[in-house]
């Protein structure tokens, strides 16, 4: 049972229901009853508690308020927290629970912020400091935007912890600091003639096959470079992509010629568990053995091809292969909804919320039509 026993002069011994014993000094300030927690028993003995209580009563008699003074001292100690420690706390309590892509993008930008601001106390940071970080980083507009978002999130965390009253990022406009956002690059659809040039391009065979698979399956490039053979069933002709925090999982039908391209990759990859294993010994060592290719390998191969061989087609990225696949499927008579489902996009509006049908057979038919078109362009069929 909880209890409270007075020792006189406001000093009180309390015992909570959980069995925690505490010394409390009760006094009046400004006509109101107030309490100051002195400490726990037996960490603080009766003699020590009486000594501390006498000292605090002297402050009360002099017009002071010990409980308020203690709260201010605690708040001040929090304000002395460095930005480096604040970022560490944010990483542990907030960032660790966000999507992997956010952890990566915020993580690298928090490294930049910590390098510039880490030694400052949280209360010292001003909007001018934030602007200086943005100006001195010399990143692209998009990366500067992510940097500002990451810093803003960290100081929002500080406001939530009552370390500061106002976020120093409030009111900072990125356009005013680094200029207006450049025009967003539009996704393109490679024409049939351009696809023929790509199929005849001077690529390493593994990279050539990866480009064909991105076209034939319309998956995201990260889904391909993370793919493992255990997720591909050649007998059932299906590739299972697991769900992530950001995206639904899906089963991709293996149509012709996608299945043939995969079988060729399997032969090239040897005993690796990955569909696209790394070819760099240094990466294998860093990853502790078997590993997939770097996420930038396919894009890098495409860019190298343009630089070294100068093909007379429009410059494209791996992601443009998805928009190419979607646009061609529409031109080949595939409905808009099925082409969107082939890209693992949700249907819009209420239908997208309640429609849980996977459209596997419809997607298989669409990808079969698209695969036959690709095979013809690649010279596999006449």
TrEMBL record:
Keyword DNA-binding in annotation: yes
Any single Pfam family the record assigns to this protein: Arm-DNA-bind_3
This protein's record includes keyword DNA-binding: yes
Family classification: Belongs to the 'phage' integrase family.
CDD domains: INT_P4_C
Record-given protein name: Tyrosine-type recombinase/integrase
Core-binding (CB) domain span: 81-159
Coiled-coil intervals, chain numbering: none
Domain Tyr recombinase: 185-368
Entry keywords, A to Z: DNA integration, DNA recombination, DNA-binding
Biological processes annotated in GO: DNA integration; DNA recombination
Entry-linked PANTHER family: PROPHAGE INTEGRASE, PROPHAGE INTEGRASE INTS-RELATED
Database matches in InterPro entries: CB, DNA_brk_join_enz, Integrase-like_cat_sf, Integrase_catalytic, Integrase_DNA-bd_sf, Integrase_DNA_bind_dom, Integrase_recombinase_N, Phage_Integrase
GO molecular function, one term: DNA binding
Gene3D superfamilies: 1.10.150.130, Integrase, DNA-binding domain, Intergrase catalytic core
């Amino acid at each position: 049972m909880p209890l409270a026993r007075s020792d006189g002069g406001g000093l009180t011994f309390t015992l909570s229901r959980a069995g925690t014993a505490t010394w409390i000094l009760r006094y009046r300030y400004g006509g109101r009853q107030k309490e100051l927690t002195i400490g726990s028993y037996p960490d603080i003995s009766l003699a020590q508690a009486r000594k501390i209580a006498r000292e605090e009563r002297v402050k009360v008699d002099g017009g002071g308020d010990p409980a308020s003074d203690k709260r201010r001292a605690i708040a001040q100690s929090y304000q002395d927290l460095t930005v480096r420690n604040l970022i560490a706390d944010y990483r542990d309590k907030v960032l660790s629970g966000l999507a992997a892509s956010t952890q990566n993008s915020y993580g690298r930008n928090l490294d930049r912020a910590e390098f510039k601001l880490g030694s400052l106390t949280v209360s010292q940071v001003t909007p001018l400091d934030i602007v200086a970080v943005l100006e001195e980083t010399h990143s692209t507009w998009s990366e500067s935007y992510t940097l500002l978002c990451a810093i803003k999130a960290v100081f929002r965390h500080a406001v939530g912890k009552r370390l500061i009253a106002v976020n120093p990022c409030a009111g900072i406009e990125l356009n005013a600091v680094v200029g207006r956002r450049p025009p967003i690059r539009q996704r393109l659809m490679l024409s049939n003639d351009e696809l023929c040039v790509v199929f005849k391009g001077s690529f390493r065979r593994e990279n050539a096959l990866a480009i064909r698979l991105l076209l034939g399956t319309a998956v995201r490039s990260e889904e391909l470079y993370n793919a493992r053979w255990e997720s591909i069933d050649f007998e059932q002709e299906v590739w299972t992509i697991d769900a992530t925090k950001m995206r639904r999982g899906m089963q991709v039908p293996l149509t012709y010629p996608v299945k043939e391209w995969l079988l060729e990759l399997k032969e090239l990859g040897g005993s690796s568990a990955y569909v696209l294993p790394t070819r760099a010994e240094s990466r294998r060592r860093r990853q502790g053995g078997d590993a997939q290719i770097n996420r930038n390998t396919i894009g890098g191969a495409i860019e190298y091809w343009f630089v070294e061989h100068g093909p007379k087609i429009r410059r494209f990225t791996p992601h443009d292969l998805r928009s190419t696949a979607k646009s061609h499927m529409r031109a080949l008579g595939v409905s808009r909804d099925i082409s969107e489902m082939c890209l693992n996009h949700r249907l819009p509006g209420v239908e997208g919320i309640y429609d849980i049908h996977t459209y596997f057979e419809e997607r298989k038919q669409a990808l079969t039509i698209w695969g036959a078109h690709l095979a013809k362009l690649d010279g596999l069929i006449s």
